[in-house]
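Q: Hi! First time asking for a complex rather than a single chain. Here are the components, and I think there are three in total. Is that enough to go on?
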Amino acid sequence: MIVSKQLTLSTRGNGDTIDMTPGVERALKESQLASGVITLFVVGSTAALTTIEYEDGVIADLGRVLEKMAPRHAEYEHHLRWGDDNGHSHVRAALLGPTLSIPFVAGRLTLGMWQQIILIDFDTRPRQREVVAQIIGE
Amino acid sequence: MIVSKQLTLSTRGNGDTIDMTPGVERALKESQLASGVITLFVVGSTAALTTIEYEDGVIADLGRVLEKMAPRHAEYEHHLRWGDDNGHSHVRAALLGPTLSIPFVAGRLTLGMWQQIILIDFDTRPRQREVVAQIIGE
Amino acid sequence: MIVSKQLTLSTRGNGDTIDMTPGVERALKESQLASGVITLFVVGSTAALTTIEYEDGVIADLGRVLEKMAPRHAEYEHHLRWGDDNGHSHVRAALLGPTLSIPFVAGRLTLGMWQQIILIDFDTRPRQREVVAQIIGE
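A: Yes, that's all I need. Here is the structure of the assembled complex.
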């Protein structure tokens, strides 16, 4: 069986990192499925999904590493061509990726105790984000 | 229901970045499935899949960041052991990953308007690449 | 049909990289499914999954690039807050990601000949790791 859900999130952009775990758990519960895989996919090319221990220290650490890899204020060809200021957002999102597949067993996500599902919005302005949750299971 | 497709692409290697979106959309249409998940997987360890806004500027920006992370002409132990010249290709491919799972709803991929599916071939020569598309849906 | 398996691995931590391919192939064989997708997910926020050519040279090369990106002995806010020493482990795991989806066709994973499934344990001590393998297929 397949159940489609859509999660909508308001972000502040600029690396804003949101714990999506409660919303994903709610979607799974509503599906009433017991065993399967939930595929999450963020629509758009300047945000990404991954898992992390959701605490301010680690989130700042990840942000600092990403800033070193693809600095906010470096020169990007994307800026020259389109007048945008979010070249680093595109690069970071492509590196981390838009998708996450999480198994569930006996109605529960198989996350670790200190492992949360996060959306990072790399864009340079507040945005409303849509994450598609496709739940395949039985 | 499960439908297996295989997409074959000719690349120039050296970071050649191909927009796979039209091919994936065609595979989905041929499957005649309405709702589910399409799992893409590139065979081989020197290429990767992700999504991006497919325009030359962003692609060059991503390439420059990857060059800084794992430079083409640095020393790699892989070279010493195997006489290869593609150590950076292996490292970049492992970092980005070989797989992408994309939901579809009402027969359409849930991509954003400026979000395309790309294959990046990091190898140092032209190659023929195979991407498996496994479509699970109803 | 959905078959759930759990793979348990003992690691030495500190970037220990384990070839999971034989274990995943065994799980797939036991499922007796012919065509579908196997979703792997590592429980916890200091380990990651990807594919690579499993040979010592490439593994050392990847480790060196990750050390440059998120050095073992840099300062991390995670350390200050929790007295931990594994800030780099969290950052590296979040960048690589906890999940991998691999199609199988005619009972075989669609891996390349030089492409293995690896778990990298970034934590700073030996650990017992659990990888959930959710097999959806027919």
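A: The interface with chain C takes residues 2, 4, 37, 39, 41, 43-45, 69-70, 76-82, 87, 90-91, 93-95, 97-99, 101, 132-134, 136 of chain B (CB under 8 Å). Let me know if you'd like any chain examined more closely.
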